[in-house]
Each structure stands twice: as structure tokens, then as C-alpha cells.
Specification:
Strands 1, 4, 5, 7, 8 and 9 form a six-stranded antiparallel beta sheet that branches. This protein has one helix at residues 169-174; strands at residues 9-13, 40-43, 54-61, 71-77, 85-91, 96-102, 107-114, 117-118, 122-126, 138-144, 154-158, 165-166, 182-188, 191-196, 201-206, 211-216, 221-227, 230-235, 239-244, 250-255, 260-266, 269-274, 289-294, 299-305, 310-315, 321-325, 335-339, 346-348, 357-361, 364-372, 378-386, 392-394, 405-411, 414-419, 425-432, 437-445, 447-454. By secondary structure, the chain is mainly β. The longest helix has 6 residues, at 169-174. Keywords: Signal. It holds the Pfam family DUF5074.
């Protein structure tokens, strides 16, 4: 994989507004309200070879309507949700901003604004320091869950520049394995976090997968999301835990629903899919709720009813939350729903009503829907959904056939589909956003997720 565009990790997010009010200019018309528009398509390339210093041009696409927008305000931040440092502003009609020697690395945020204040929603892009390389400063990690009870979870490392890989990189780096049933992995700041369900542990490593700390958890960890210097983890016994990324201690837990799975951050809240999966054969049955946890108080505030057995969840740049409910594997099918970020109203996504798994990248949901057939192999459709326009299409456009998709994830500028037959090592297929295959790579047994991490002194 010789492509150099792995350096950009882009995502649109909903941010809590810290609005301002300025004096009206008597010579200009007064806007009716604070803008609600959001820019899209952020891009940034660091052109500064100094370590921990950014220079370059941040660019974006203007909202479809700028009727109530007079300017854009740009911030640097350590996270995608907090305004750390205002860098400047440009008038509407200008869709770029030049950065020179900015040292507050992490994220760049762009807010539409006018004289009354800034929009509540923003666009953000996570940026990475060039550090004087030729741009090839990343390597990919594939987290492989293995088979439950077999103590064979692994972490595959793949170097996009050289094409070299290590099938058990965690073992190589630490002299021990991950253990039983790895579930999720995220990269946040200078660390990676790996949830190992069967071990009730969270492995915290540096970006070379060298262990920093192994955290014992009071529940079996499932999925993670990071925001504002914290990592939030679902425990399968019905809790969400908050982990501080500085102390690497679990600060608090909050009860949610039964057997929670994925979680997402939007609107200064955490949305948690409560599956109730362990009760499938009991009179209680599956759960059918999404818990909402207020980030500032870390308290559960409500439960939103969805189709039964919700497991997958993603948020878009406008604060809308997308949920896949797996149903009952019978008369209730896999159903893709949207929770309106403003009203909390739940609706089936009619343009793309069924999905098995999904990921989100730069304003687009990438989904697949897989159903077993009499042939013994699943029939699968791959559908993308543009969260701004509502447009759908088959997003694998080059005819690549994936017989048994197992997971889908997005990182950098690529979407990755993992394939598994549950018995042999799987493969990971990397696609660009035009739907063309870049490369296929052998992974481990049951590849769960792909992440991208910066190399330093490999």
C-alpha cells in the first residue's frame, strides 16, 4: 500500500458551543438568529517539519445555505468537543484558513457564526504532526478477537509504506498475548486502548503497542469512545465507566441498560446501545433502549426506545445518532434507525433500512447488510448513506467480492472491510472513498477493527 493519504484522519462532530455576543453594527442588517449551518469536507496537511508544530492551510466546503452566516471561526483543541484556543476567523465566502507555527496540536474546529454568536454544531478534523517525514509516518493495527475461551486474541501490525506485517505484534512488543476475546481498540492522543472482554481488562499501550498499564475492570469491557481527555467504556454488566487518560484510573461508573454494546458522543452526551443480548432466551428478552448520559454530570438522564437488540451506534456532525438494532434473528430484522439530535425522535432510515454493521467517515455512513442463504454463504449488500443529502449508493464500485464480511471500520482516508469464516485467519480489504480496492491484507482470527497510529522511532 503505497498511498500517502493515510496521514489525514478526518471526522465531522457535534461540539458544545461556547457562544459569544458582540455589539451590533448599525450599518449592517441584524441576523435573525445564531447560525445552525455546519461546514463539511475539512482537510489539512501539515507542511511544517518541526516536531509539535503545525503550519498549512485548513480548507472546507461551505454549507448549502449561508443566509444567516457572516463568518467562520477557527479553533485549535486537544479534543473534538472543546474549544481550547481561538486561531482566528474569516468572512463568509472564504473557505480556508492558513495556520503558521500552531503548537496546540490535536484537532482543528470550524464554526459558522454571525454577530449573534457561533453555531452549536461544528466541523472538526484530527491533525497529526508531520515531524519532518515524507508523509509515511503511520502503521495500521488490526484487532483480532480470536475465539471465545481459546485465549487467542491478537493484534496484527501492517506498515502501509513497506507492506510488511507482524501477525501478533502485541506479543512481539510485550512478550505476552492479549488474552481471551479482544473486543475493541481506539487510538486517542499518544496512546492506544484495547478492551479485552474475556480478561476483564483494558490494555493501555503507546502507539508502538508497548504496554503502559493493564487496567482490571469491574465488568467485561465491550466498546470504547474518547472525548475531552476521557475514555468511556461499556461494561457488559450494565455500566459505562469513565477512564481518565492522564491518571489511567477508572474515575466513576454509571448504570445504563442491560448488556450495553457500542456508544457514541454527540450533543455533549453519550449515547449507549443496550442490547440485553444475554436475556435473549428468557421471558425478559432483548433490551430495546439507548441510554443517554450527560457528560458534564456523568449521570444517565433518559432512555430512548428503539427496535429491540440495539448493538451498533454512530453519530454524525449534526448530532444525529444512528443505531443498528439486530432484532431477534427471526421476524424482527436488522434495522438502521436515526435518533434526531435535537428532538430525540427515532425513525427508521428509509433510504437504508437494514444493516448489520456500519462505520462513519467524513459525512457518510458505510454499511453492509448480510443475510445467510441456503447456499451456506451470506448474501451481502454494501450501502453508503450521505448524512447531509440522504443519498445512497453501493459503495464498493470496483466489483470486489467479499464472501463473509465480519466487520467494517474507517480510519484515515480509507474504509476497511474485514472478512472471516470464524475458523481461519481473516482478511482486511482497504477501500478508498471512491469505492476502489487499494489492497487486501491478511489479518488474524475474527478481525474486529482497524485503527491507524503514528510511527515515531520504528
Amino acid at each position: 500500500m503505497k498511498k500517502k493519504n493515510f496521514i489525514w484522519v478526518s471526522a465531522l462532530c457535534a461540539c458544545l458551543s461556547m457562544g459569544f455576543v458582540s455589539c451590533d453594527d448599525e450599518d449592517d442588517p441584524v441576523p435573525a438568529d445564531v447560525p445552525s449551518a455546519v461546514v463539511t469536507g475539512l482537510s489539512f496537511t501539515d507542511e511544517n517539519e518541526k516536531v509539535n508544530t503545525l503550519s498549512g492551510t485548513l480548507s472546507w466546503t461551505a454549507p448549502a445555505s449561508v443566509e444567516n452566516v457572516t463568518k467562520y471561526v477557527i479553533y485549535a483543541s486537544s479534543s473534538a468537543t472543546v474549544k481550547t484556543e481561538k486561531l482566528g476567523e474569516v468572512n463568509v465566502g472564504t473557505n480556508s484558513f492558513t495556520l503558521t507555527d500552531v503548537t496546540n496540536l490535536g484537532y482543528l474546529l470550524v464554526f459558522a457564526a454571525n454577530e449573534l454568536g457561533e453555531a452549536e454544531a461544528c466541523a472538526s478534523i484530527e491533525v497529526v504532526d508531520n515531524e519532518g517525514t515524507d508523509g509515511s509516518i503511520f502503521q495500521l493495527y488490526f484487532l483480532n478477537s480470536g475465539n471465545m475461551g481459546n485465549n487467542n486474541a491478537t493484534l496484527t501490525m501492517y506498515d502501509p509504506e513497506t507492506g510488511e506485517s507482524d501477525p501478533d505484534y502485541f506479543m512481539t512488543q510485550n512478550g505476552r498475548g492479549l488474552g481471551d476475546t479482544a473486543q475493541d481498540i481506539i487510538v486517542y492522543g499518544e496512546k492506544m486502548y484495547i478492551a479485552v472482554y474475556g480478561e476483564s481488562t483494558i490494555e493501555v499501550t503507546d502507539l508502538r503497542a508497548k504496554s503502559i498499564k493493564q487496567i482490571r475492570t469491574e465488568g467485561q469491557p465491550r466498546y470504547m469512545v474518547a472525548d475531552g481527555g476521557k475514555v468511556y467504556v461499556t461494561y457488559y454488566n450494565g455500566y459505562v465507566a469513565r477512564l481518565d487518560t492522564a491518571s489511567l484510573e477508572v474515575e466513576a461508573t454509571v448504570p445504563v441498560g442491560r448488556n450495553p454494546e457500542q456508544l457514541a458522543v454527540a450533543n455533549n452526551k453519550i449515547y449507549v446501545a443496550n442490547s440485553g443480548g444475554m436475556d435473549y432466551s428468557t421471558p425478559v428478552g432483548y433490551d430495546k433502549t439507548v441510554s443517554v448520559v450527560d457528560i458534564s454530570t456523568f449521570a444517565a438522564t433518559e432512555k430512548i426506545e428503539v427496535v429491540l437488540n440495539p448493538t451498533k451506534i454512530q453519530a454524525d456532525e449534526r448530532g444525529n445518532v444512528y443505531v443498528i438494532s439486530m432484532g431477534n434473528y427471526g421476524d424482527v430484522p436488522n434495522t438502521l434507525q436515526r435518533i434526531d439530535g435535537q428532538t430525540g425522535e427515532v425513525s427508521v432510515l428509509e433510504a437504508c433500512p437494514n444493516a448489520t454493521d456500519m462505520t462513519y467517515l467524513d459525512g457518510v455512513l458505510y454499511t453492509y447488510y448480510s443475510q445467510w442463504t441456503a447456499s451456506g454463504l451470506p448474501s451481502t449488500t454494501f450501502t453508503s448513506y450521505n448524512t447531509t443529502t440522504g443519498a445512497t449508493e453501493n459503495w464498493i464500485k470496483d466489483g470486489t467480492a467479499i464472501a463473509q464480511p465480519y466487520s467494517v471500520s474507517a480510519t484515515g482516508a480509507c474504509v476497511y472491510v474485514a472478512e472471516s469464516d470464524y475458523t481461519n485467519n481473516g482478511d482486511v480489504y482497504a477501500f478508498d472513498t471512491d469505492g476502489s480496492l487499494i489492497v487486501s491484507i491478511e489479518a488474524g482470527l475474527n478481525p474486529m477493527k482497524v485503527v491507524l497510529a503514528q510511527k515515531d522511532d520504528f
